Amino acid sequence: MCDKIQEIETLLSLFQPYMEKEAQPYYDVVHSKKFGYLFIQYFPEGDGDNFMTPLEDSHDLLFKLFSWITLDVLALDLAGERMTTEIFPVEAEEIQNRIYPILEKCGERCAEFKELLDRFLENYPDIFLYDEPF
User: Fold this and answer.
1) In 23, 72, 109, 122, which residue has its Cα 20 to 30 A from 15's Cα atom?
2) pLDDT at residue number 86
């Protein structure tokens, strides 16, 4: 159990600069003594569903972060007007450019986490729409 918590804390510290500067302001990760780590999604204007999701392990956290960073990139309209739910190559490259440098600081888990990102991008939007973690 401690290893799972430590992994989540390590990932949070690595992703924190991104979450503070570049991320949309509608999510956060908090720690509760009663419930552990929770991923909170909040839309103050009521234009989305509010959720609080328990994070069991690093994969849960990465799935949520990959999802939101993808939304950050899609909001940039890098490929012009969106006529599909698929990720365009220029968007996939931007997502990788944002996430790979962070994952490279994960030591021995780096290759595994990069593979998870690649699988996420290959299966988008289905993996995102159905909230199916890795």
Assistant:
1) 122
2) 82
